[in-house]
Amino acid sequence: MAQTWSSRLTDLGLRVADAFVEMGELETATRHLDSLLDVDKDEVNFRKALLRVRLGDIDGAQRSIERIASEELRDMVNALLTIANDDWRDAVDAWKSAGEKYSMSDFLQQNAAVCLMYTGRLAESLDILERLAEEHDAYPALLFNLSTVYELCTERAVDRKISLATSLAAKSATPSSGGWARSNADFNL
Q1: Where are the beta strands (DSSP E) in the chain?
Q2: So what's the pLDDT on residue 116?
Q3: Do 76 and 98 touch, CB atoms closer than 8 A?
Q4: Closest CA to 125 of 148, 141, 102, 103
Q5: Residue 50 to residue 88: CA distance in whole angstroms
Q6: What is the pLDDT of residues 127-144, one digit of tens each?
Q7: Following CA atoms 44, 47, 48, 50 in sequence, which dihedral angle do they give, to the nearest 10 degrees?
Q8: What pLDDT digit, counting tens, does each position of 68-102 carry?
Q9: DSSP 8-state assignment for residue 189
Q10: CATH number of 1-86
Q11: Closest CA to 104 of 65, 132, 67, 62
């Protein structure tokens, strides 16, 4: 029972940090993360690195990355740093490489697709996003990004989005997909 409560308190502490971020209190979130005890150090340093990237503090993010033991988490934040440094071509390679190495490959591949979109390689971006929509549960960010690429690639974007919505409706609803309810905003309509 004590272990359960300890786990719940740790989770609550991380959720409080997330709430500070949502409120725009990024420095407060960083100080709160510093105050947490008995929390996985990689998790805290990963979140601090993400906060630093969001604040534009590249040096601070780099210091947090150096404290992360997990190669996977380091690779993810380093890929974000390439974007923060406005190096989109290297970012594509960083996200693709991470997507090939790690289990969260759908998330990582989606980020590669977004970088491809920003470098003007729309056909490659479209291929990745459509494959992800077919193979995985569609979540709002994936749907929005795919719909955006449809807008950039074709004058028949609405038809493509309707076809996407139809194909998603034919799939079984799962908790990870968020169920059946989708708004027009998810499809950028």
Answers
A1: none
A2: 95
A3: yes
A4: 148
A5: 18
A6: 999 999 888 877 788 889
A7: 160
A8: 999 999 999 999 999 988 899 999 999 999 988 88
A9: -
A10: 1.25.40.10
A11: 132
